[in-house]
Amino acid sequence: MPKTKIYYKCNKCGFKTPNWMGRCTNCGTWNSFTETKGPVRTRNEESNSNQPNPITRVVSEDRTRFPSGIEELDRVLGGGIVSGSLILLGGAPGIGKSTLILQVAFLFSKSFSRVLYISGEESTRQIKMRAERLNALDKNLFVLGETEFNRIREIVDNNEYQLVVIDSVQTIYDSKLDSAPGSISQIKGITGELLKIAKEKQIIIFLIGHVTKEGSLAGPRVLEHLVDTVLQFEGDRNYSYRILRAIKNRFGSTNEIGVFEMKESGMEEIPDPSRLFLQERPEDSSGSVIVPVIEGSRTILVEVQALVSTAAYAAPQRLTTGISRKR
Fold it and tell me: Please, are residues 87 and 81 in contact by the beta-carbon 8 Å criterion?
């Protein structure tokens, strides 16, 4: 017998969602959702008692995408943030991960629904100070300083949040697991549980992850296999420019990049990277040429420089940085 479940339906376009939203993402109408009860088939009923079915009989699932309000981020994600997805963001300390995610959380809470920002590294007062600097204050943006996973699960289960941020996953621990916080078993177990929560409640969960000295994400490689999307924030702390790229993306391409500039007011997106890469190039300079490079769906103009110097050996060497030596 089908179970009865509560969902929310837009009075204008009929769009359905498991969680209440202030603005319909399908037609853009505000305060149009009403609570509705209806029969929902269980997983076994949908798959004929969990038996193999022809792929032609499997019911496809429509994924709702939410625009983040930051076009460069939406480009990397493949067109927006997918509901029910688990997204891992990695990057070096001080690169701007928390700044970018706090901006995303603010824009999402302002446009769609309630957001919960959980920090295991900073207090709520520190988050408030950063939010004031970024002008990212909204009544639908909730903050929590907590590291115990079961407490986090209880809060998420008992409240209607459409987006949850955990900063960072290495600081969260499950008291039921007999291992130290940040250990492989803790990270793997917590990430697996967060994936279940995201799929069952159809909420978006952002995880911020630490990186090693080599620049790769810290923790077991299985962590990258569990999540739906892995984003890498790259850049030099001595410069203000940052590049965001997707290492893995189940809902889009991994060829796109997003370019940002770190400013006092937060991360500012750069829609025209070509102008950025060429603005310091002197005109009519020798040993320099402009090359078009395709990154995803757009073409970016970059400068390639050549320098010739006297060889100390009989056979001169050809060295390259950033491109293939054979080219």
Answer: yes
Q: What are the two backbone dihedrals, phi and then psi, of residue 148, each rounded to the nearest 5 degrees?
A: -85, 120
This prediction has a pTM of 0.78
Query: What tokens were used for 134?
Result: 């970024």
Q: Kindly state the average pLDDT of the residues 97-109.
A: 96
- Give the pLDDT of residue 232: 93
Q: Which pairs from 289-296 meet CB under 8 Å and 24+ separation?
A: 295/255, 295/256, 295/257, 296/75, 296/253, 296/255, 296/256, 296/257
Of 284, 298, 21, 314, nearest to 160 by C-alpha is 21
Taking 60 as the threshold, does the pLDDT of residue 2 lie above it?
no
Strongest mean pLDDT among 23-32, 216-225, 287-296: 287-296
Average pLDDT over residues 25-41: 72
Other CB atoms within a 10 A radius of the CB of residue 117 amount to 26
* 282 CB-contact burial (10 Å; exposed 0-12 / middle 13-18 / buried 19+): exposed
What local confidence, expressed as pLDDT, does residue 42 receive? 41
C-beta of residue 107 within 8 angstroms of C-beta of residue 155: no
Q: Which residue has the higher pLDDT, 153 or 14?
A: 153
Cis bond leading into 85, ω under 30°?
no
Distance (Å, rounded) from C-alpha 144 to C-alpha 164? Answer: 11
Closest of 132, 76, 142, 61 to residue 108, by C-alpha: 142
Torsion angle (degrees, nearest 10) of CA 60, 195, 45, 160: -90
